[in-house]
Amino acid sequence: MSESYDIGLGNYDVSTRKSAESDYVGFWENQAKNLHWSSIWEKTLDWNPPFAKWFVGGKLNASYNALDVHQKEKSDKPAILWEGENGDSRILTYREMLIEVQKFANVLKSLNVKKGDRVTIYLPMIPELPISMLACSRIGATHTVVFSGFSATSIRDRIDDSKSKVVITADGGYRRGSIVKLKEVVDEAIQDFDFVKNVIVFERTKTKIAINEKDKLWNDLMNNASDICEPEPLDSLHPLYILYTSGTTGKPKGVLHGTGGYLTHLYSTFKWAFDIKDSDVFFCTADIGWVTGHSYVVYAPLLHGATEVMYEGAPDFPDASRMWNLIQKYKVTIFYTTPTALRMFMKFGDDMPNSFDLSSIRLLGTVGEPINPEVWKWYYKIIGKEKCPIIDTWWQTETGGMLISPLPGLETIPLKPGSGTRPIPGLLISVVDENGIELPANTKGFLVIKNPWPGMLLTLWGDDEKYKNVYWSKYPNCYYAGDYAIKDEDGYFWLLGRADDVLKIAGHRIGTAELESCIVSHDDIAESAVCGIPDEVKGEVIIVFAVLKENVEKNPDVLEKELISKIRTDIGSIATPKQIYFVSKLPKTRSGKIMRRLLKAIANNEHIGDVSTLEDGAAVTEIQTAFEELGKSIKEK
Ligand code: ATP
Ligand code: MG
């Protein structure tokens, strides 16, 4: 765990951390001045736990800060370099983005969308998605983006919960070479929803669609729209958006974010973490349907007037080299992706990335799950050519932006593969035990946040009680993140998986991430998920699921023995699994995260709960079959 890499960008700004330590409120107040406000706040923070109000009385507009502020110096600079899955491409400059956003804001107004109304956006990864979001923010409508891979039931639940007046969708979107018929899904979802007044349809694929009474075509509306729409000055606390979480641990929660605090958090973290420069080409592979896309595809890069690549389709279409191809083609300098994508790329070996020119890259990032040290090292060596810092960014939909991450734009500190290093300035994060007592270094416990931060969620949409219960009831006045972690002797944080997923074996606590990282570090293994099932003697025993790399043909019994011996050496015999299964895929959320709770539920013969965000039902069937076989073999014994 102590292995470290001395790589950075040579930035040493000690004053930022210092001023944050002495007065975090004053510190964020200074950060907020990087934005354009039409009225300055009267109070920087009104902290009435668990409700934080940042920049009370201040007024600003998100779309103004993303677009208008760049018109003097950067109007011809590309904001978005877009590539469709089918090879289509478009470039939108800051000027063009502003024109489109103003026109679409007028379209929304013409459909009677008013400040505070909700608008559901169910679009593929096309420029019309950020344009719609910014148009909403221009007039003060609250957007709620639903990932375009969701089914009618999932989108229905979200439209119902947010009571959206308008839904924006497309005739279809390209995904792995076929067309996903989004409009059909919307039709099914809103059938009896009288509160939905209009559906706006962008024609992306030109597939035939039914045009119903409520439907309007994007282009028809835009043709008649004026390209001047003054931005509405909005309260700092005005709800910018509702976004539902990934649903890794249960039913997705409707997280509500405000405007002033959220944008301040994004502006600062984007600068510190990515060291953004005018010449950079930024590429974040996240879908805008998730928080990473909201924060670090839409708002943060645009606040900085950056140029970014936006890609429509699957990362492995037509094959697993698509991302390397995009990096080479657009000369990407900063690349931000997920451990799950990296494990997929790794599975195909080094030759694939090695056959592309990736020399433009200067900084790499990862988010979404703990990154296995083995995967980190591959990313560092094969993609970064041992010259790029990797920022492992820990955060949540609820936190709005990064909270733990190396910050190469601010300081150069040694990196440790698998650790997100330290909290961002202005934040007090601890690891505590069941009773909230701070634990000594290198002791596993629960991650908590002890002071409010500007990107913090305002509440859960329409449910303050649930907001209090989920995040603030376990420990008084402390935000409970639900993640399991340790802080090492250097003050670096290691995220070890969901607190609910922790394995308790004969009194020992083992994080799922620790064990999975050990398994993935075996040469033949691409991915792994572990879970515990009850055992009368040990409390719990461990079951391992592993996916092999491409073209591995080793005898499973041999591989099993190798893995067990590896686990015994690396972690200890306490972690020896009861059973190892080799499967072709793991159950994941549509955002790519492993749903360990599902494995556990299946193993315990329990109801599998809300699986609306599950990517592929086939993975579940495979695991169910494996457990049935396990059940049989136990009986036979
Ligand atoms: P739900 O809350 O509905 O169960 P979710 O927590 O997966 O879904 P997100 O907000 O998208 O929804 O994910 C946040 C979680 O992702 C974190 O709590 C953490 O468990 C995990 N995570 C994100 N980034 C990292 C990282 N760099 N290292 C480790 N874990 C991470
Ligand atoms: Mg969560």
Task: Give the structure's gist in a few sentences.
It contains 20 helices and 30 strands.
Q: What is the share of helical residues?
A: 25-40%
User: Average pLDDT across residues?
Assistant: 95
Which sequence of strands runs across the widest sheet?
5-4-17-16-18-19-20
Looking at the overall shape, the CATH architecture of the domain at 505-636 is: 2-Layer Sandwich
Topology-level CATH name of the domain at 505-636: GMP Synthetase, Chain A, domain 3
Terminal CA distance reads 40 Å
Total helix count?
A: 20
Tell me, what is the CATH class of the domain at 505-636? Alpha Beta
Largest sheet: 7 strands, mixed
Give the overall silhouette. globular
The count of strands amounts to 30
Ranges where pLDDT stays below 50 over 5 or more residues in a row are none
What fraction strand?
15-25%
Kindly name the structural category. Answer: alpha/beta
The value of Rg in angstroms is 24 Å
Bound molecules: adenosine-5'-triphosphate, magnesium ion
Annotated CATH homologous superfamily of the domain at 505-636: ANL, C-terminal domain
